[in-house]
Each structure stands twice: as structure tokens, then as C-alpha cells.
Amino acid sequence: MDSVKPMDKRRGWTKEQLAEYNRDRFEDLIAAGWDLVIVDEAHRLGGSTDQVARYKLGQGLGEAAPYFLLLSATPHQGKTDAFYRLISLLDPVAFPDITSITRSRVQPYVIRTEKRRAINAQGEPLFKPRQTQLVPVSWSAKHWQHRQLYKAVTDYVREGYNQALKQKKSYVGFLMILMQRLVTSSTRAIRTTLERRLQVLREPEEQLTLFPMFAAEEWVELDGQEQVESILTTRIKDGD
User: Fold this and answer.
1) Is the pTM value of this prediction over 0.70?
2) What is d(CA 238, CA 194) in angstroms, rounded to the nearest whole number?
């Protein structure tokens, strides 16, 4: 998706370079005369706003073919506005605004296959029943430093997450929560992350993310798994 989505701006690029890029990748793709367009991981087209490049890509693809099939295991991620943008790609007339998102209207457009009902060619259940249980893990005396570190990071995350919610910066809130995941990964991982966070806070002209390699609007377009993968890739590049 990111290799063909349209771009409004890019650091260091002129308007002519942007126009040429969009023409070669996005506009030519849309004008190719498709009979059917299938998009996997289609929930990524919903975007955070209707100005996000991936959403504009979805609009272009939806208009490029008479048949448009969106595949996703998570079409609704708890945000009605993003779900509305996704569904409106199928039929903007039937879904003119967010108030048109009702169960009765959406039902004809959505085929839902629940995991517990999935079967193979022989009609047998495709997935075994999953049973989960909570296993408490106690801290031993030798892990007291790790426990202090986790508590300190958790306190920092809690404060930062609440501030992000007040400022309506949900992507920052996710970044804060991601720190808890990193602190359980390794002390090296959380140290590198906190050092980069401190660097960004000291240099306000940098992008408002943990990682200067991403612009804020680019980071928002990534889903949770992509954000985790980008972090891991960055750490690998740094020799961690």
C-alpha cells in the first residue's frame, strides 16, 4: 500500500518530483482499467482522517474497478469513524456520513467469517478450541532491579498516556504503552527507546515520535504490528 499511495509532501522534494511520483505510481495504477480490485489487510485503508494517504489510495482503487473486494480480519478496531471511512469506499452513496453506519445498512456489504466457525474442505473445524488461563508470576529477590525498572516505566507510561488522551494524540498514547512491551523484552530495548524519547523531547523541531526516522503523519498510518516491526527494524539497524 505504501509503495503506491499518493503523497502530498515529502521532505526535500519539489512539487514537480511529487507530481511525477504520484503519476508513475498512483495515477497510472488507478487508470489501468481493472475488472476487479482485491485489497488484503483492508482495515489499513481507513486511516486516522480522510486526508490520510492510504484512505485516498482506497478511494482511488474503489473508483478504478466495478468490483471492489476488501479483506480484513479486523475491519472494526473500535473507532466508528475509521470503520465508516472503510465502508464508504464500497458505496459512498449508501454511506454518506458517519450516522449512516447502522447494523442493518452495513450487513449487506459485509460477509463475516468467525474463527470458531471456519472449516476445512472436509467440513471439519479449522482451528482447535483455545483455552486461556491467568498464570501469576511472582518476582524473586534477585529480580528486584527489574521490578523497579518495570514500575518506573509503568508510572511514566501511565502519565504520558493520560496526557496523550487529553491532547487527543492517540498515536502517542500507543507509543507510551509500547514501552511496557519493550521493558519486558530487554533492558537494552527500553534503554534505547527512552534515550531516543529524551532526544526528541530536547529537540522540539524533530518529529513528534519516539523515532526521528518517522514523521508524525507517517507513524499514525502504521497499524500496531507495523509500528512494532518498525521499532524492531530500527534496533536491528543500530546493531542491537
Assistant:
1) no
2) 15
